[in-house]
Amino acid sequence: MTAxxxxxxxxAEALRPQPRPAYVEWLRxxxxxxxxTSAVSVAELYRGADESRDPAGNIRHIEERVLPAVTVxxxxxxxxxxxxxxxxxxxxxxxxxxxxxxxxxTALYHGLELVTARTGRFRQVPHLKVRPLPRSRxxx
Length: 140
Prior knowledge:
The protein is of the alpha/beta class and about 140 residues long. The protein has helices spanning about 10-15, 20-30, 40-50, 55-65, 75-90, 100-110, 120, and strands at about 5, 35-40, 70-75, 115, 130.
């Protein structure tokens, strides 16, 4: 069984008024117990909602649509240790922001495949499995 950690951008795509049909179809095919996100990604979603034109509506989407649909994994001590090891291993070789490395560490620690639109950003993270969003266009 492959389970997935959804990056904030992957969740945001699903919340769009007209998300990519192939992505929605794939999401619907996944059992609920295979869908995870990081508390770090949830923080990014809240930040985006707070900066949007409709903060209350977007926060409601997060709390009513996202949080019930995925298991949110904490950035805890065990994940922090994985993060520290990654940061030390990559040192100056990466330009990934701390929050992105925290998400990668969460996926690695829990043995999950990261679902993101930003696959190129994560290629430098050793042993991380990354799945791109399906490329179908959004419906007009």
